[in-house]
Amino acid sequence: MTANDFRRLALGLPEAVESEHMGHPDFRVAGKIFATLAYSGPGYGMVKLTPLEQDKFVKNAPDVFTPAPGSWGRNGATHVHLRKASRTIVKPALEAAWKNTAPRKLTQKFED
């Protein structure tokens, strides 16, 4: 997966927009970040999961997903190693991050 593949998946979610935070691209819904690119370095993305979701994704694809260091990681921030990732692995993680961040009314529309 490339950074542009990650970008297309993130921007394919309802009302997702690309912005910038601390010199790297991020993806937001309702003004809140749900994913980033290159935060931990080139070739990486990040998704904001719950700790339980993070555990599931890391266990299912440890080559692709790793917790971010420190308290960010303990709270669910999860690195995505793009070169080892595929669309079918990353899309559910981006959707979960988006659902965790989007307003409830928007997530209800998405689920319907």
Characterize the structure shown:
- With 112 residues, the protein is α+β, with helices and mostly antiparallel strands.
- It has one domain: Aspartate Aminotransferase, domain 1 (Alpha-Beta Complex).
- The chain is 42% helix and 27% strand.
- It has five helices and six strands.
- It has a six-stranded antiparallel sheet with strand order 1-2-3-4-6-5.
- Strand 1 and strand 2 form a beta hairpin.
- The longest helix is centred in the C-terminal third of the chain and has 15 residues.
- It is globular.
- The N and C termini lie far apart (29 Å).
- The model has no long low-confidence stretch (mean pLDDT 93).
What distinguishing features does this structure have?
112 residues, alpha+beta, Aspartate Aminotransferase, domain 1, 6-stranded antiparallel β-sheet, 5 helices
Topology, please?
Elements: H1 3-11, E1 17-21, E2 24-29, E3 32-37, E4 44-48, H2 51-60, E5 65-67, H3 70-74, E6 77-81, H4 87-101, H5 104-111
Antiparallel strand pairs: 1-2, 2-3, 3-4, 4-6, 5-6
Helix pairs in contact: 1-4
Structural class call reads alpha+beta
| Tally of strands | 6
Q: Treating each run of at least 4 consecutive H or I residues as one helix, how many helices?
A: 5
CATH topology name, in short, is Aspartate Aminotransferase, domain 1
> What is the CATH-assigned architecture?
Alpha-Beta Complex
Q: Stretches where pLDDT falls below 50 for ≥5 residues?
A: none
Main beta sheet strand tally, sense and closure? 6 strands, antiparallel
Radius of gyration: 13 Å
Estimate the global geometry from the Cα principal axes: globular
Helix content: 40-55%
N-to-C SSE string, H for helix and E for strand? HEEEEHEHEHH
Count of discrete structural domains: 1
Q: Assign the CATH class.
A: Alpha Beta
- β-strand amount: 25-35%
